[in-house]
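User: I've been trying to design a sequence by hand for this structure and keep getting stuck. Would you show me what you'd pick, starting by listing the structure so we're on the same page?

Assistant: Good idea, let's start from the same input. This is the structure you sent:
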């Protein structure tokens, strides 16, 4: 076994998550935290031997991104256009089972005596380690070392290295490795208690057994099919056994329907050890031709055996060295927050789809909260992280939206609109939201996707994506806006958008949500700019696309007219932008009279009670202050932030990071730091009390944004990068890097200065506090760090 991996059982806490003692009441939460994945396949951090406790429960979750089954949605009172079928990511075949028996006694943490215990998530190597020294009830002591990885370089592969040393006896140890395909409901899944974040409960197996086989040498496979969506799944395992020269062993296999196991009985002398490497391959008919599933699986396992666990681990480290070189954020002065930043970045890498067919679920591949659905979280929170660190993943996430454009067109038709309307929550591209006031009504997702496309193209210069896919998305979704809105005589002929819900889900079905209107305006303008760019630089491709979708010059002029006449509600008496036409006329929520146990409000009050008040679940108007920062003056940002911030409950995990960014920009570093601290360790400290259901991927990405966009002051305006760094008091320095048009820029700042260094590339121009600055390859450009104060900004013209 690679000695480096063994040494990492005594790790640096800033690069590792370490559990020194086991507390079974926290088992599900720790399973989420110790999850591993590669964007395609994910494994929760469950114990290989299983869980046998009384105070907690276990969710032995194994997930394939984009692999789902469907089920009818039943409405007591239905209506036209409601989604009729839901999609849910499945907990698939459990191939992580390894059980140990010592002289006939089964190893479990709640039997015998645990003398040494340690579990480590190693984020530099991408490996989960366990170390246990256990004494059986009969007094036999063993040292157990377990190393697990889900390969970042071979997306269909996972591996477990299981090593047992006989410490005080000579005798037989038995290692049973198994696959179990009988997954009806996640083991130990708690009663959902009406929590809409958890999704529907499944009462019957979604995976139906079809066939299985083995090679007689410890390898086996299971083929299953989803009940309704009819996707095929093939899970297979292979093994490598390493023995002392004098050891003897016996091998036995069992195949019973969706169960396959192989057991190795090994005779050890005192001090000797045996190790088993288990290789797992997972393929589905969503990404592999069904007739090739077994062949592809066999090829993958042969590759794994040839590499061995050590070889796969070395590849894992090499991949992560490249990732961390670009994505690492270093802060000096707070080890706990430093650990949180790295945990979050590693978690994002593990859950992001990178094949153009899949996206990022709200809980990633760490749990079944929100049923594995994709939301606007991807474009608004996750995409910026990858755009500026790993742009090839950013492109893949946007390609998913192009792949599902046809379903968005069909949804717009159902909603009696032209163009395309993207679903609020989905896996396969169809709308899955059964509660339209906080689902389908959030049409701003169209503008969010357009914003993500613009940011990605401006940051990367990838016009190929824009020409091939992005422009068609922009044009079809622009059609939706112009058809949805109308020129309202009561508003002086301004373009109004009625009956929508903005990002704040505590305010639903309103007219002229400011966030929606402002983002739709930006969307329409960018679509017109894109049409002009394509006409001038790619005339043949533009002509082809115009013919394909029937785009006319008259239509483009109408998009520009709607953008120019977009209505944005404003209250001149308060000097702020109204969240919507009626928000400021409502009664403010009685925060003083609401006890802490009544939060989150959505679990304790009927939606109508909430909708009647000025109360926000998350950043809404405050969010657009950040996204369209250049369109607001500093004074406007301050006034709007100070009005809306006290009304915000942050019942959504997406909210604190946005408030941190805006607070940093207006000079309130204490609030910025407080909100950042809440974001960066949201899962590590279980701030929202639901990490057991899976991690909060948007908040994970938001912690990166809070550093780079907040304290680093990074903005991308007109394709040009600008920075306005401010250092929060607890830190002595901060360092991050961003990819910009194929070049890697490092930004370092402490209390005295900021240093910009071009680590990769030939040269670029940026702005520091408004000053243009040229940076050449390898050059470090220094500037004195200005005193922390609000930056200046443009003025929003309504």
């Amino acid at each position: 076994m690679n000695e480096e991996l063994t040494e990492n059982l005594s790790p640096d806490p800033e690069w590792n998550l370490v559990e020194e003692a086991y507390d079974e009441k926290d088992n599900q939460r720790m399973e989420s935290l110790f999850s591993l994945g590669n964007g395609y396949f994910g494994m929760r951090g469950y114990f290989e031997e299983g869980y046998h406790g009384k105070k907690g429960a276990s969710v032995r979750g194994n997930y394939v991104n984009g692999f789902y089954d469907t089920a009818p949605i039943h409405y007591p009172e239905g209506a036209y256009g409601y989604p009729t079928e839901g999609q849910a990511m499945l907990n698939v075949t459990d191939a992580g089972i390894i059980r140990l028996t010592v002289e006939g006694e089964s190893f479990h943490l709640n039997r015998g005596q645990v003398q040494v215990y340690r579990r480590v998530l190693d984020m530099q190597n991408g490996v989960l380690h366990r170390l246990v020294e256990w004494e059986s009830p009969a007094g036999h002591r063993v040292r157990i070392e377990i190393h697990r990885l889900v390969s970042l370089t071979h997306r269909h592969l996972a591996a477990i290295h299981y090593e047992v040393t006989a410490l005080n006896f000579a005798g037989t140890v038995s290692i049973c490795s198994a696959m179990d395909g009988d997954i009806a409901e996640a083991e130990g899944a708690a009663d959902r208690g009406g929590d809409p974040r958890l999704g529907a409960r499944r009462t019957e197996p979604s995976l139906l057994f079809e066939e299985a086989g083995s090679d007689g040498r410890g390898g086996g496979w299971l083929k299953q099919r989803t009940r309704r969506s009819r996707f095929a799944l093939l899970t297979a395992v292979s093994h490598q056994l390493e023995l002392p020269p004098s050891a003897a062993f016996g091998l036995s296999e069992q195949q019973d329907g969706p169960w396959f196991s192989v057991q190795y009985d090994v005779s050890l002398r005192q001090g000797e050890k045996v190790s088993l490497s288990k290789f797992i391959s997972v393929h589905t008919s969503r990404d592999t031709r069904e007739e090739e599933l077994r062949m592809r699986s066999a090829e993958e396992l042969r590759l794994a055996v040839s590499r061995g666990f050590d070889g796969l681990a070395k590849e894992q480290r090499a991949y992560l060295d490249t990732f961390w070189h670009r994505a690492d954020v270093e802060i000096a002065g707070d080890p706990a927050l430093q650990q949180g930043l790295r945990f979050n970045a590693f978690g994002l890498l593990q859950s992001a789809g990178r094949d153009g067919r899949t996206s990022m679920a709200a809980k990633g591949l760490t749990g079944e909260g929100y049923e594995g659905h994709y939301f606007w979280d991807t474009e608004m929170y996750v995409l910026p992280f990858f755009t500026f660190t790993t742009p090839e993943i950013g492109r893949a996430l946007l390609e998913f939206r192009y792949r599902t454009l046809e379903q968005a067109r069909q949804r717009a038709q159902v909603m009696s609109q032209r163009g395309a309307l993207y679903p609020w929550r989905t896996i396969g591209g169809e709308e899955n939201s059964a509660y339209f006031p906080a689902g389908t009504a959030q049409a701003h997702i169209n503008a969010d996707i357009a914003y993500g496309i613009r940011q990605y193209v401006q940051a990367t210069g990838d016009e190929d994506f824009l020409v091939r896919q992005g422009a068609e998305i922009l044009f079809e979704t622009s059609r939706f806006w112009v058809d949805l809105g109308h020129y309202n005589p009561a508003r002086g002929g301004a373009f109004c958008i009625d009956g929508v819900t903005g990002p704040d889900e505590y305010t639903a079905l309103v007219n002229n949500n400011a966030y929606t209107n402002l983002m739709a305006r930006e969307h329409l303008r960018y679509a017109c700019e894109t049409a002009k760019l394509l006409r001038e630089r790619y005339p043949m491709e533009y002509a082809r696309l115009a013919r394909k979708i029937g785009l006319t010059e008259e239509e483009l002029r109408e998009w520009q007219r709607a953008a120019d006449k977009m209505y944005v509600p404003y209250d001149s008496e308060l000097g702020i932008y109204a969240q919507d036409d009626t928000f400021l006329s409502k009664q403010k929520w009685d925060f003083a009279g609401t006890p802490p146990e009544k939060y989150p409000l959505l679990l304790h009050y009927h939606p109508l009670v909430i909708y009647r008040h000025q109360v926000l679940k998350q950043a809404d108007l405050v969010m657009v202050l950040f996204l369209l920062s250049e369109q607001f003056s500093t004074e406007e940002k301050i006034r709007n932030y100070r009005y809306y911030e006290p009304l915000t409950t942050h019942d959504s995990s997406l909210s604190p990071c946005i408030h941190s960014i805006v607070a940093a920009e207006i000079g309130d570093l204490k609030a910025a730091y407080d909100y950042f601290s809440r974001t960066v360790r949201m899962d590590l400290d279980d701030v929202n009390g639901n990490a057991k259901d899976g991690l909060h991927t948007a908040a994970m990405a938001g912690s990166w944004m809070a550093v780079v966009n907040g304290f680093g002051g990074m903005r991308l305006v007109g394709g040009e990068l600008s920075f306005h760094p401010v250092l929060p008091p607890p830190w002595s320095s901060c360092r991050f890097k961003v990819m910009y048009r194929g070049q890697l820029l490092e930004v370092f700042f402490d209390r005295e200065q900021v240093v910009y260094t071009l680590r990769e590339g030939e040269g670029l121009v940026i702005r520091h506090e408004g000053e243009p600055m040229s940076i050449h390859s390898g050059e470090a450009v220094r500037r004195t760090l200005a005193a922390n104060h609000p930056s200046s900004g443009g003025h929003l013209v309504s």
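That's my pick for every position. To get oriented when you compare it with your attempt: The CA atoms of residues 126 and 316 lie 6 Å apart. The first strand starts at residue 16 and ends at 19.
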